[in-house]
Write a structure and sequence with these properties.
Two copies of one chain form a homodimer. The first copy, chain A, has 96 residues and is of the alpha+beta class. Chain A has a domain at 29-94: Transcriptional coactivator/pterin dehydratase (Gyrase A, domain 2, 2-Layer Sandwich). Helices cover 43% and strands 20% of the residues of chain A. Chain A has helices at residues 7-16, 38-55, 82-94, and strands spanning 21-22, 29-34, 60-64, 67-72. Chain A binds chain B through residues 38-39, 42, 45-46, 49, 52-53, 58, 60-65, and chain B through 38-39, 42, 45-46, 49, 52-53, 58, 60-65. Chains A, B: This is Putative pterin-4-alpha-carbinolamine dehydratase.
């Protein structure tokens, strides 16, 4: 069971994860990624899938050719938790 | 450049691909798939990605844990084409 994100952590979220945006109407964050083509996009998705399975924390995500959109939230916590912040940072690190 | 689906082929589409549904407001078809867990869902997605790349025809798709939703349409044709029917049949065959 994950704890909801504390108010202090919410305050620093935009500076910790500047590439991620709040999702309107949900306690969740999202980021869109663009690649050269489908092959690059799906290679990225495969790396994210491995992160997700290793951390037992899975994204809501979609793909259209070279675009990937990832939404993170924690169903157990009813919204954002530290697990989302860790996952977002790990995803960002794949592209660093 | 893909040709739009002929009226005759549209008529037989429901019997050719009974598991696929029309997408409201679009000339496209969709199917939802459910698996035991994320690992099974992503294994399926990987096989669909290989089909997509081999056929140079890519789905619009999303995944949430054990669920995968796939939408097929042909942007070049402004809607459904034979390429979508072939892709849908190939995806169905993965699960046969």
């Amino acid at each position: 069971m994950a704890d909801p994100l504390s108010p202090g952590r919410r305050d620093v979220l935009p500076s910790l994860l500047p590439a991620w945006s709040p999702v309107p109407g949900r306690d969740a964050i999202r980021r869109e990624f663009r690649f050269r083509d489908f092959s690059e996009a799906f290679a990225f998705m495969t790396r994210v899938a491995l992160l997700a399975e290793a951390g037992d924390h899975h994204p809501e995500w979609s793909n259209v050719w070279n675009r990937v959109e990832i939404t993170l939230t924690t169903h157990d916590a009813g919204g954002l938790s530290e697990r989302d912040l860790r996952m977002a940072a790990a995803i960002d690190a794949l592209l660093a």
